[in-house]
Structure formats: C-alpha cells, structure tokens
C-alpha cells in the first residue's frame, strides 16, 4: 500500500517577539477517516498554508493558521487512493473547539457517519467551534451528528448561505468546492486581496469566479477598509501621523473608525500605531549604533525622553537596557 507522510498545513514560522502580541493564531481542524478524499481535504489545508505564506511576508501578520489533520485514533489514515496521511487523535484537548472544523468527503463518509466515536466527538466540539463545514460527502457525517449547515451560514451571512445552496445543487469538482469555504475564512481574517491571491495561485483558471462568489463587488467592505488603514499605519508609523489621518485613509468618520478598528483588530488605532513604532524602535536598538534620541525621531516616537517613558511603561526596562539584553541574546 502506498505511503506518503503528508503533513498538515501549519507553517514553521514563528513571529518575532515584537510581533507576537499582535498575531492571532487561528486553529483549523480537518477531520479525516479511512477512505476520505485527499483532493478535497488537501486543497483546504493548502488554502490556509498559502494564506500563511502571503501573510507572513507582510511587515505584520494579522493572524496565522495552525492546521491539523485529525482522526478517531490518530496515526496514519488511508485516503480513497490508499495514500496514508498522519493525523492527531480525537481527545479532550479539542473540547475547547476550533476557529474552523472541516469534515472530509470521500467514499468513506458513509462508514464514518456510523462511527459513534466520530458522531459524539462532533456533537461535543461543535458548540464551541466558530465554523463547522463539510467537504462534499462529509455532510453525511455532519447529518449523522445532527449538525446542519446553518452554523456557518448564521456566522458568515449571505455569502456563506449562497455557498451552501450552491454545494447542495451539485457543484462540479471537489477541488473547486472545497476551496470556497476556506477562502471565505481567509477573506474574513486577511481581506479580499489575500483571498484573491490565494485563489489565483492555487487555481488560476477559476480565481475570478471564486472571488466573485466570495462577495467582492468591487467596493471594499468596512473590514477591508480597516485592514487597509492598519497597513497604512504600519507602513507610515515612522512619520508624524495620527489616528485622524488613518480615519481619512479608511474614508470613515473618526468616531466610526475608532469603533470599527477595535472590532476588527482587537486594539485601538493608537495602540496599534504605538506597537508598530515600538517594533521599529526595537529593531533599530538591536541592529544599529544610533543614539536613543535619534532612534526616537526615526521611529516616530518624538524624542528620547518620551521613548524612555514608553519603554519603562510597556517593557519595564530602559531603551539602553533593551539594547544590551537583545544583543546578548542574539550572541547566545
């Protein structure tokens, strides 16, 4: 029987210490069983893997996807073409749920739907999982667990409802069908630009159709505007900019911008800007011989006194102490 050590799509990339507090980890699970379709499950994993690559190339990754293959007992699971994939077992670690859970399709779905261990586990984790989604025949497994498709429709609105209806009408091709739900999550987290890039790389001939299904009408959503403003803050943090400037970039009133930014990014615009400036400052302290006052001016912090106050408040050490410690750690 053929064997392949197929790894999940988690990226071996660790955010720098200056970025760690800003990067959220999204836990994605793909439930497999004997006789699953490798094509459908594999493309879902690849969507998140590609999104990680594109996101990590930015100055600040907004989130990173940790993708895991799961099965009842863990270990190697054979797909419908007899290729074996390594999986983690179903256990109490997962009772806290996931950001998204995909159930694989394939000819083994009928047997999986009769497996009480799978059914009970799904019932237990679904209430704490943001999105539960079937890949093709995987809907039989969800039906056996009494889990409908409304869970993701309710959370994602009309775009997801459209996708569910389309799949139920018999969408052509596991690969195309499987990409849609994963791309919708990427669009929510990272914006339409990243989801479009992922689609273009993985399925060039169908990228335009996929993006149109994801609800991009050519006008940026409020979330896309906020993320664009966040990127602008990141790219211009060394200049004497303000939150008012960022609100203008997003084409929003200052009040609405402050509210929407906190919802989308999890922190206020001023804190986001400060974190971006701190990241620049820390890099300059570690990699250059510039005096603290000049670094403060170059990083948008104003002057050395203000920088020192911020460092003591945020990092509990002075800029000079940070420089010494970071270089000591770099030299081992």
UniProtKB/TrEMBL annotation:
Question: Which InterPro entries does the UniProt record give?
Answer: AraC_XylS_family_regulators, Class_I_gatase-like, DJ-1/PfpI, Homeodomain-like_sf, HTH_AraC
HTH araC/xylS-type domain span: 227-325
Q: Which GO molecular function annotations are given, in alphabetical order?
A: DNA-binding transcription factor activity; sequence-specific DNA binding
The entry's keywords: DNA-binding, Transcription, Transcription regulation
Key word DNA-binding present in the record? yes
Which residues are in coiled coils?
Answer: none
* SUPFAM superfamilies given in the database record: Class I glutamine amidotransferase-like, Homeodomain-like
Q: Does the keyword Transcription regulation apply?
A: yes
Quote the protein name from its UniProt record.
AraC family transcriptional regulator
* Organism annotation: Caballeronia cordobensis (Burkholderia cordobensis)
Q: Taxonomic lineage of this organism?
A: Bacteria, Pseudomonadati, Pseudomonadota, Betaproteobacteria, Burkholderiales
């Amino acid at each position: 029987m053929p064997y392949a050590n197929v790894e999940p799509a988690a990226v071996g990339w660790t955010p720098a210490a200056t970025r760690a507090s800003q990067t959220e980890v999204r836990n994605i699970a793909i439930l497999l069983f004997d006789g699953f379709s490798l094509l459908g499950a594999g493309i879902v994993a690849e969507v998140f893997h590609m999104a990680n690559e594109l996101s990590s190339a930015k100055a600040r990754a907004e989130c990173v996807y940790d993708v895991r293959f799961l099965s009842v007992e863990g270990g190697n699971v054979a797909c419908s073409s007899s290729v074996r994939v390594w999986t983690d077992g179903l256990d109490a670690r997962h009772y806290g749920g996931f950001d998204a859970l995909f159930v694989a399709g394939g000819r083994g779905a009928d047997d999986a739907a009769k497996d009480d261990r799978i059914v009970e586990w799904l019932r237990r984790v679904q209430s704490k999982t943001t999105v539960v989604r079937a890949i093709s025949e995987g809907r039989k497994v969800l039906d056996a667990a009494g889990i409908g498709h409304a869970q993701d429709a309710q959370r994602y609105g009309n775009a997801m409802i459209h996708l569910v209806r389309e799949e139920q009408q018999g969408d052509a091709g596991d690969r195309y069908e499987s990409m849609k739900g994963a791309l919708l999550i990427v669009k929510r987290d990272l914006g339409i630009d990243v989801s479009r890039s992922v689609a273009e790389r993985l399925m060039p001939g169908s990228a335009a159709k996929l993006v149109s299904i994801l609800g991009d009408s050519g006008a940026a959503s409020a979330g896309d505007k906020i993320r664009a403003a966040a990127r602008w803050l990141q790219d211009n943090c060394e200049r004497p900019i303000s939150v008012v400037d960022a609100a203008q970039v997003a084409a929003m009133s200052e009040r609405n911008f402050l509210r929407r930014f906190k919802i989308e990014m999890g922190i206020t615009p001023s804190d986001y800007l400060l974190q971006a400036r701190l990241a620049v400052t820390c890099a300059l302290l570690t990699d250059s011989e510039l005096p603290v006052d000049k670094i403060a001016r170059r990083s948008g912090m104003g002057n050395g006194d203000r920088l020192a106050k911020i460092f003591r408040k945020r990092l509990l050490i002075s800029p000079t102490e940070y420089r010494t410690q970071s270089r000591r750690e770099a030299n081992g």
